[in-house]
Amino acid sequence: MDLASLKDRKVVQWAIAYCVFAFACNEGIGLVGDAIGGFSDTTEQRLALVLVFGFLPAMVMAWYHGEAGRQAFTRSEALLVGVLGLGTLVAPMILVSAPTTELADSSTEVSVEPVEPVRPAEDDLVEDRVVALPPLNVSGDGELDGLAGMGGSTIEGRLVGSGQVELFPASSLSSFDADARPGPIEVAREAGAGLVVTTEYRTEGGEVVVSAAISSGADGVLLFQLQEERAPVDDPIAAFDRTAERIVGALVAYTHYDFLSPGQQPPPTREIARLRDEAERRFIQLDYGRFIELFDSISRLAPSYVQLHRQMSAFYWNNQDTIPGALLKADSLNRYLGDHSHRLTAQEVWAYEWFSYALSGDIEAEYRHLSESQQMMENRPGYPLMFAARRANRLEEALEIHDFRYELPELQRNYLAWDGQRFMALAGLRRFDEAALAAAEARNRHPGNWGPAVWEGTALAAMGAFDALDELIDEVRIGYEKNRRYSTSVLLLEAATAARGEGYSVDARSLARRAVDETETTEDLDLRRVRAEAMGLLGEWEEAADLYAELLATEDIEPRRIEYIGAYGAAAAQAGDAGAARSALDELRGELSKWEGLVYAGATKFRMSQVHSALGEPEAALRLLRESLREGHYVDTWVHWDVHLESLRDDVRYQRLVAPR
Questions:
Q1: Residues 546 and 626 reside in one and the same domain
Q2: 577 and 480 assigned to the same domain
Q3: Cα dist. 221→217, 433, 522 in Å?
């Protein structure tokens, strides 16, 4: 056999063709394995060796059949090909054996202990890492199983797109089994996640109904049972999308407001969860009356359910401006928590004490409590501490705390409230250029909220930048169509107040007149309040007093009632009607008796201070102002610009009272 013989019989061409064939077969085996769930490693190795050893029989075939005119299949060739073929099949079986344990006697049972994956301990769970399990079809309709993938992708996409959380996909878990559905603790430990999101869906009356829950990864406690979302069967993703929005919102609330976490509370029963779903729906619809009724029903079902009382006390506290008697109710519920303190965790006790200081209006005590208890917030100053520092008139400290914001988890970092406190602190320090820049940044971060535009306009007016202010007013008038009239009128009013307080009297009158024109012929109570304040800035005190009297006759809401009584009394005093002003003072004294020991006492005394100042009684005004600041009212930039306190402005005692600490 020489090179010429190999060339005549085309052995080289056969060798190349076989190598191409073997490579293609190997790739094909991989594709088939992926399609059916994968071959074992042993099987893949044996198939690969068959292809390798098959090279020899192929070359024999090439030798015998490659030469032209010599295609006869002889007995010797058949024998040789058979031996080589058998070797090709047997050799891989011998060389690659299945994995076994050590050889043992056949009578000895060999057991292999499963190796547990290394999982993070409870202390190693990452608070802001969330693992979201695929949605579970609980309808019993197998045709809906396909929604799990689409719905899960929708929820995961929304969580990742929000930039709020670190998402750990359930598909990455070695322990995850779609049929077994491991519990929250097991899943959280492997993922190192602090929170677990579970979602279920079913059909009902031609609709897909999606519900979700968020559980603690540390102990599996149910944190949130979210309101169900519905969508037509032909557009089910809409329900998953809205559910994803609710999940993100709940994660924000949970991570920011730590005192809402249930601690050691048991998960709610199905009936309580149903009532909570309905209550949440009513809350979104602004049906506060029905919302409160539903929570009263829950309290009758579970009177010792501490989480309920904590949530409701927070709700009343945050809605003092819109629900009559809300502060009294919040105080009552907080006292209930104190009576059940033996059922509270350390952090819940801390939150109860914090809430007690906030309710009482003892701002200094609240600030000390928060600043001395940083371990409850993982040694990271949070928004509550910044808010307390700003209300305690510790403005430089408030700004320092704001800088810690960027060390916080993403969930806690982007609150509009952070921007508001920063603006107030900068404006209180009379750093109006920085305040305007901070407000502009907030407006860019929160384009759907017109509040930052009002802040920016206030700072621009205080700086005397009226051309820039006019451009901003035009932007607000065009950009906030839903609240165009109210947002524009509030911006004009606040800018006029700032301009007047900083000595730009001509521009202030022009802005105030535009605010009056903006609110002409309106029955809206908020717009009428803006109109009354603008009338006062123009010195049209009789008209302002008449408007406040009308508001008092139509709105009986604390603390607006206190505000309107004080504003009416001060306007009457400015108009020269001392009798009406003193009648307002008597009414405020009557209101004061309701709020002994509560934050409204400070607000009431502040309104009394305004009336005394407008009557030209500085000693009484200063005494009440000092007491109001001790009992819950706090200094902000608008106090420096308050038109009713102008008679005190040159008094050194007043200047010391309102100066930043």
A1: yes
A2: no
A3: 8, 48, 51
Q: In terms of domains, do 126 and 202 share one?
A: yes
* Same domain, yes or no: 573 and 530: no
The Cα-based distances of 649 to 362, 618, 622, 655 in angstroms read 25, 10, 11, 7
180 and 235 in a single domain? The answer is yes
In a domain, 472, yes or no: yes
Nearest Cα to 615, choosing from 658, 577, 559?
577
In a domain, 330, yes or no: no
Q: Which among 95, 111, 133 is the end of a domain?
A: 95
Q: How many domains does the chain have?
A: 4
Residues 6+ apart with CB under 8 A from 565: 552, 584, 587, 588, 591, 607
202: phi then psi, degrees, rounded to nearest 5: -155, 175
Among the listed residues 209, 227, 366, the one whose alpha carbon sits nearest the alpha carbon of residue 283: 227
How many other CB atoms sit within 10 Å of the CB of residue 559?
19
CA–CA dist 547, 492 (Å, integer): 19
For residue 125, give both structure tokens.
């769970």
Element (H, E) at 496: helix 484-501
* pLDDT, position 289: 82
pLDDT value at position 119? 43
Of the three residues 200, 234, 256, the one that is the final residue of a domain is: 256
Taking the C-alpha atoms of residue 291 and residue 319, their distance in angstroms, rounded to an integer, is 13
Cα–Cα distance measured from residue 108 to residue 319, given in angstroms and rounded to the nearest whole number? 73
> Three-class SS of residue 413?
helix
Q: Are 133 and 199 in contact (CB under 8 A)?
A: yes
- Domain span at residue 55 reads 3-95
The CATH number given to whatever domain includes residue 481 is 1.25.40.10
State if pTM tops 0.90. no
The better pLDDT of the pair 340, 461 is held by: 461
Asked whether residue 156 is assigned to any structural domain, the reply reads yes
Planar angle of CA 384, 390, 392, nearest 5 degrees: 100
More confident residue, 494 or 219: 494
- The residues pairing with 126 across neighbouring beta strands, listed in sequence order, are 193
Three-class secondary structure of residue 572 per DSSP = helix
Percent of the chain with pLDDT over 90: 26
- Rg for the chain (alpha carbons), in Å? 37
- The answer to whether residue 294 sits within a structural domain is no
Q: What is the pLDDT of residues 530-549, one digit of tens each?
A: 999 999 999 999 999 999 99
Q: Locate 404 and state its tokens.
A: 């810690």
Domain match, 449 and 504 both: yes
Decide if 303 contacts 282 (C-beta within 8 A).
no
Residues 446, 416: contact at Cβ < 8 Å? yes
Residues 509 and 621 placed together within one structural domain of the fold: no
Using alpha carbons, list the distances in angstroms from residue 128 to 212, 216, 217, 404, 426. 18, 11, 11, 17, 31
Strand partners for 137? 201
